[in-house]
Structure formats: C-alpha cells, structure tokens
Amino acid sequence: MIWVTWRQFRAQAVTAAIGLVLLGAVLLATGPGLAHDYATGRAQCNGAGCHQFAEGYLNQHQKALLELTLVVLVVPALLGLFWGAPLVARELDAGTHRLAWNQSVTRFRWLAVKLLLVGGSCAAVAGLTAWWVTRWSVPLDDASRLDPRLPLGMTFAARGVVPVAYSLFAFALGVAIGMLTKRVLPAMAVTLVIFLVAQFGVGVLVRPHLAPSHTSVAPVASATLANFNVSRDGIRMNGDVPVRGAWLLSRSMVDASGARVDVIPASLEHDPACDPTISKDITACLNLIASQGYRQQSTYHLPSQFWRLQWTEAGLYAVGTAGLVGFCFWWLHRRVV
Amino acid sequence: MIEFHLDERSGLAPYQQLVRQVRQALRLGMLRQGDQLPTVKEVVGSLAINPNTVLKAYRELERDGVVKPRPGVGTFVTATLPDTSFAAHGPLRTDLRRWLAKARRSGLDDESIEALFATTFRESSEEDIA
Amino acid sequence: MNALIRAEALGKRYGRRWALTGCDLDIPAGHVVGLVGPNGAGKTTLLNLVTGQLAPSTGHLSVLGGEPGRDAAQLARVGYVAQDRPTYAHLSVADHLRLGRHLNPGWDDELARRRVERLGLDLKRKAGRLSGGQRAQLALTLGIAKRPELLVLDEPVVSLDPFARREFLQGLMEAAADTELSVLLSSHLVSDLERTCDYLVLLDRGMVRMSAPLEEVIATHRRLTGPRAEPSRLPQDMTVVNASHTDRQSTYVVHTDRPIHDPTWSVSRLSLEDVVLAYLTPASRESAPAMEVLR
C-alpha cells in the first residue's frame, strides 16, 4: 500500500520538492547578507539612531518580508487544495476506488496509509517552509519590534508551529470535502472557501481569547502617543502599546469614570490650545485633555505569551483535523460506492 | 486435431453440438483412432464458452466409448463409430426416397412434408420417453 | 460442495428506495453464474453486496462461507472487475501489475505477465492510452492474477466492440478452466451469457425471479400453442410464466419438470433469451408474487 500511495503521489511530491528547493535557494542566497547588515547596523547605532536604522532597514526589505510571509500563509491552502482535495475525490471521480477497494487491502488501511503518508508530507513541507522563513526573517522580526510594519496577526500565522497545524487541517479538510463532492474541482473550490473562512474566523474571533490579555491604563503624554487627529466633531487619539513587541488587541480613550470614549467632545476644538491653526505644539492640548481625566487604555498580549498562543491555536486546529479524519473513516465505513 | 465451432441458431445445446461435431469428424475420417482432441482450455479459449460445457461433451463421448482421457496429457480417440460408412444407411435412404415421392404425389408441398415429418418425429420420440 | 453465494431475505435500501428486496440465493461453487436482468433491476447492487462494497440493509449474505469484505483475507478471496472496468489512466500497464503485486498476497505475477504479453499490451503504455478492449483486458488481468476463488464482473463486455467482446470472454473462460475459478458476471444481454454461463440468476425490479443451472432452465421451460383455452385446461404440474391469446389461439410459456403429452398442445423448446423475456413481459411481472421461484 505504501508503494501504491507513493506511486500515485510521486508527481505532486516532486512538484513540492522543486518548490522547496527554489525557496531554499532564495533564502540561502539572501539570508546571510540580511543578517550581516542588521548585525552591523545595530552594532553601530545607539538610542534614537537605532530606531532610525530599523526604519531604514525595514523599508529596504519590506517587500521581501511581505512576500515570504505570504508564501508561508499560502502553503497550507495549496496543500489542502492540491494534495488533500484530490486524494480521494480523484478516485471517486474516475471510479478507480472500485479497483483500489477490491485488492486484498481493507479500505480502512488504504485510507490510513494515504492519510499518514501524504498528511505527513504536508506537515513536513509546511514545517520546513515555516522554519526556513522564520530563520531567515529573524533580523527583520527583531527590527519590527522597534518599528512594527506587518500586522502582528499576519506574522503570527507565518511563524512557529501554527503553519504545520494549518496545513494538516487544510489537508484533512480537502480529503473530507473530496469524499462529499466526489469531484476534484468542486472539492478544491469548497476546500479553499472553508479554509479561508476558518483562517479568518480563528484569526479575528478566536485567537485574541486563546490567552488571557493584559490591559493597561496610562496617562495622556506625547511620548506615548501613537496618533492624534483633530476634526470638526472632536479629537481622536490613541496611545502606544506600553510593552515593546506586544500584540495589541484594542486601544481606546477612557474618560474620568473609566468609560470608553471614541471621540473627545468637540468643545475642545474651540480651545485655542488644541486648534491646529493656532498652536503647532500639542503638549498644551494634551495637558488639557489629561486634566479633564482622559486616559489611554490598551489591551494586548505580551510577547512572552507567543508560544502559549501558538500551541493553543495549533491544538485547536489539531482538534479540527482529528474531527475531519474521524469523519473520513466514518464516511468510508458507510460504504457508499 | 479438429476445430470446434458453435451455431447459436441450431437449437442444440452447445455440449450436444460439440459431441455431434466429434462424431461427424469420425464419420468423415477427419478424426482417427489415437488422435488427440483439443484440450478443454483450448476449446474454451477459442469459443469463449463455459469450461463445464466442454467437460460435459467429453464425458459423454467417454461414456459412449469414443474417447478416453489420459490424465495430464489430454483426451484421445479410442474407437471408430460402428456405422462409419454411409453404406449402412443405403436401404433406409431408399425407403425415405420412396416415401417422399409418395407424399408429393398426394399433393403435399415441401413445407407440409417437413411439418409432417417433424410432428411425427416428435410424437414418436415422446412415446419413447413415455 | 461449498456454497458460493448464500443469501437469506437479503435487501438493500438507498434512502427510501429499495434496490433489492427479499433475495434468497443458494448457488454452489464451481459455476460460471450469469446475473441477468433489465437495467435498474439491482444487478450492480447485488454484485456490490457480494464483493463487500456495500453492506446489506436487511437479511444475511455469505460468500464462500465468509462475510463479504469483512477483512483483507475475505477481500483476497473475491476479485471484482467493477462497472466500466476501472483502471488508473495515468499509470502504465507495468505499474498496474506492480500495484496488483503490492496489494495482493496471492498475486500470480507469472500469470499476469504471460497474459499481458500474449495480449500484446505494451508494459510502458499508460492505461489511459490503451483501447477500450485492452483496458478491459488489463482490468481482467488484475482480477485473475489476484488468484481469487470467485471473480465478480459487472457488465464486463458492455460498450466493447464484437472482437474485443469475444476476446474478453475467451480470456475469462480460459481463466475459469485453468484455475477452477468460480465466476459471477452480470449483463443485461442474454446473448453474452448463453455460452459462458452454466448457472443463471434472473433479477427483476430488485427481486430474484429465477436461480437455477442453465440446463435446467432450458429443460424445464416449454412453449405450448393450441386452440384458445383457459390456464385451468392446461396439464397438471406446470406453472404458467406467460400467456397470450388471440381469438382462436392461446400461447403459454410454462415451467414444468415433466414431459407434455396432451395432444391438444403443440410443444416447442425455448431459447434462453425466450425464457428470460417470458419472465420480463408486463403480464408476467404483475403475477410475479404468486409465482413459484425456481431453485
């Protein structure tokens, strides 16, 4: 059964191997230079100069970082589409399952070997891609702590163990959907849609709650100001995350009673201290706002919670994967020819 | 060695056709004592028929003492048929000719003669069974 | 002798529709069994049950004394050339043989290679580029070289040209002669089965209408033609399969074990096709439940 699985999987495995070699070549060609530039730059800078260096360094490599992060994000979806969806659907489509299931191998073993071999390859490909890209982007990730560029949710999904969990989930999803549609192309389409919905849903709705978040309330001060905007209806402003490299979940202004405020009332606009046409310096305006009891509040995950979040999310996907695999065997047991 | 063929419209069961073809070949001298018949697999492979059909035909020929199987070698012709020559049919044929002429004289056409022969033949064989 | 297939009150339901109901079968081993019936009679369902591809909804089925598809050992005893004779289009002939070798402990590689060579199949050619007849032969080779005790074939020669049809049946019969293989094959054409089978199962609308050795089927069915008469006027001990009447004449197809001597009736033999068709005419189908089913 192992030989048969390998023989049917060979072409796809070769394609993946070529992809990995190309990726490896790119990473090996650019990685050492990238690390060297960063190390030299950091050794020569100090204080605010370091911030400036990080900014320049990131500007220079932003495109490459974005592209490679996207590669890691796309790999699980590709594996689900091109390895998962056709695995059983192709057999059902061509009727060859009736050939395969009538050899002297039970169909449970048939599926188990296929899932283990191809699923294992999925984990290997995704793991290798993520590990390589993570290593390559160590200096860039470090610089990002000084000057965040990509949304942290995006980098999170492209680092650590979650890409492996995503790829296994996408693969099992593809196999299960393929059993239901019995056709390769619809299976690929449905798999893609469900996988994207799952990724988006987990990323936005579930991930913030996977570990306890921290909330800090800080006085209004220009040093910790992230943005400041005066308009006709009032002032909108937000503070910085108080911890470097933390993952910000939400931030807002709160008034003296602790209630959340989106816009600080417009009456302030008429105060000359906060009128941008009169005063260029916002310190007076900030002092005024602070004196009225407004403070800046942020909710965030600490950088030290990174691995806890990673493993919890990976575990969540693993449960989903196990459920899908269970479904596959149950479907097989129903013996629908 | 002879080659068998089947006629699907003959109305005879396939095994009977095989038996008849062996007998016919013996009568016409195409098979002689000591000749080998095609193996079951050969017949089956050329005619695409059920192996049991061939086995049954060979068993019937064996029972009639016409052929004898030699295990591991094949089936061989052991005897010639008693009425090999058409000479034995001579008097019968003369009688039949006379009867046919009589039937025509009494106004029967070919079809009626055939029908008459067939019904009489059937009745007499059923009397034999009964 | 061991039973090839034994079924008691076997039924299979898809959703609310019964594809097969109340099937009783007791077929001895060593036969080439023909399963005949019109399209949609439940032939494929029965074959899928026999090979263990489907599980019965009701009743009991045993094949060669075992539960179909229960484990690898039972799978090894039954070969199946499924409908449309599936093969892997992108795998070569040699790959198919290797697949057979890897998936079947009893694989006879010698036999497989000999067959492929004699058929003139190019080992390197992909199955998708073979002709329909060659692909069918490849599927048959996989079924035979597995060395099963029972080989099941679902409409194996449908959509093949007459030459490929003949060649396929020749190969199948040779294998049956060579390896003492029992065979169960289905067809909606009686002519495919007439020469090759020695046992017949007639399936109609999910029910077994007849199951008997072919010779017995031929020997026990007669057509009676005579002046118009009610069935009650027929000789004793016979079952009417089919009746048709004109003003003056009645024609009956009957099933009987005894010779018919009544001089009122002119008696003729029937071809297998005539017998099968007699069972499938609408009038005969209506009276089906009341009719005795042959064993």
Commentary on this structure:
- The complex is a heterotrimer of chains A (337), B (130) and C (295).
- Chain A is of the alpha+beta class and 337 residues long.
- Chain A is 65% helix and 11% strand.
- Chain A is built from ten helices and six strands, in the order ααααααααβββββαβα.
- Chain A has helices at 2-44, 48-94, 97-100, 107-136, 138-146, 152-157, 162-181, 184-206, 283-291, 306-333; strands at 214-219, 225-231, 234-239, 247-254, 260-261, 295-301.
- The longest helix of chain A is centred in the first third of the chain and has 47 residues, at 48-94.
- The model of chain A has no long low-confidence stretch (mean pLDDT 85).
- Chain B is elongated, with a radius of gyration of 19 Å.
- The N and C termini of chain B lie far apart (40 Å).
- In chain B, helix 1 (14-27) packs across helix 3 (51-63).
- The model of chain B has no long low-confidence stretch (mean pLDDT 83).
- With 130 residues, chain B is mostly helical.
- Chain C has 295 residues and is an alpha/beta fold.
- Chain C has ten helices and 13 strands.
- The longest helix of chain C has 18 residues, at 162-179.
- Chain C is elongated.
- The relative contact order of chain C is 0.14.
- Classes of the chains: A alpha+beta (337), B mainly alpha (130), C alpha/beta (295).
- At the A-C interface, helix 1 and helix 3 of A face helix 2, strand 5 and helix 3 of C.
Please render the helix and strand layout as text.
The complex is a heterotrimer of chains A (337), B (130) and C (295).
Chain A: H1 2-44, H2 48-94, H3 97-100, H4 107-136, H5 138-146, H6 152-157, H7 162-181, H8 184-206, E1 214-219, E2 225-231, E3 234-239, E4 247-254, E5 260-261, H9 283-291, E6 295-301, H10 306-333
Antiparallel strand pairs in A: 1-6, 2-3, 4-5, 4-6
Helix pairs in contact in A: 1-2, 1-4, 1-5, 2-4, 2-5, 2-7, 2-8, 4-7, 4-10, 7-8, 7-10
Chain B: H1 14-27, E1 36-37, H2 40-47, H3 51-63, E2 67-70, E3 74-77, H4 90-105, H5 110-129
Antiparallel strand pairs in B: 1-3, 2-3
Helix pairs in contact in B: 1-3
Chain C: E1 3-14, E2 17-28, E3 32-36, H1 43-50, E4 58-63, H2 72-77, E5 78-81, H3 93-103, H4 109-119, H5 132-145, E6 150-153, H6 162-179, E7 182-187, H7 190-196, E8 199-204, E9 207-213, H8 214-220, E10 221-227, E11 239-245, E12 249-255, E13 266-269, H9 272-280, H10 282-286
Parallel strand pairs in C: 3-7, 3-8, 5-6, 6-7
Antiparallel strand pairs in C: 1-2, 1-4, 8-9, 10-12, 10-13, 11-12
Helix pairs in contact in C: 4-5, 5-6
